Amino acid sequence: MQLLFKLNRPFEVASRGYPFIISFSKALALHERMLPFCMREVWVVTACLALINATASHYNDGFVAPDIEKEFYRIQGNLYSLCRVKFMRLAYLIGYGTEIERSPVNSASLSMLSWPMPAVWPPVPPDASSMVLEKEKASFSILNM
Predict the structure, then answer these.
(1) Do 36 and 93 contact (CB within 8 A), yes or no?
(2) In 3-state terms, what secondary structure has residue 102?
(3) Domain range list for the chain
(4) Which InterPro entries match (predicted)?
(5) In this predicted model, what pLDDT tens digit does every residue of 62-80 receive, in sequence order?
(6) How many CA atoms lie within 13 A of 12 on its CB side?
(7) Where are the alpha helices (DSSP H) in 1-145?
């Protein structure tokens, strides 16, 4: 990755990083039962934001072909969109999904797509309070609607 940055190719870093985030997220899903609560979602958000910041700081406007520039911004948009989806999912998992404003002025809700149910829901940690368990059950019932 550092070599691609030194060669002034942040587009290639972004175009390789995005599929890596998707594939590693799928690998985490296979082991979600053993992971801490919501770790997969938090990892995806962190990885997307780190990749966006790294590639944006190394990107020089006007020094690439217009089609590459267009693809670079498309990939950045995909990364931001993936972050938004994972943030929305986190909101539902911790019980704030019902409080998200659903109006035309909320641009995030305009393009919000439903995401697939996970094959295995992560277990609630044993030291969690009963309130967290109630919120998780409530959010799970909302997702099943």
Answers:
(1) no
(2) coil
(3) 2-143
(4) TRAPPC10/Trs130
(5) 677 778 788 888 889 999 9
(6) 10
(7) 2-6, 10-30, 39-57, 66-93, 107-110, 130-143
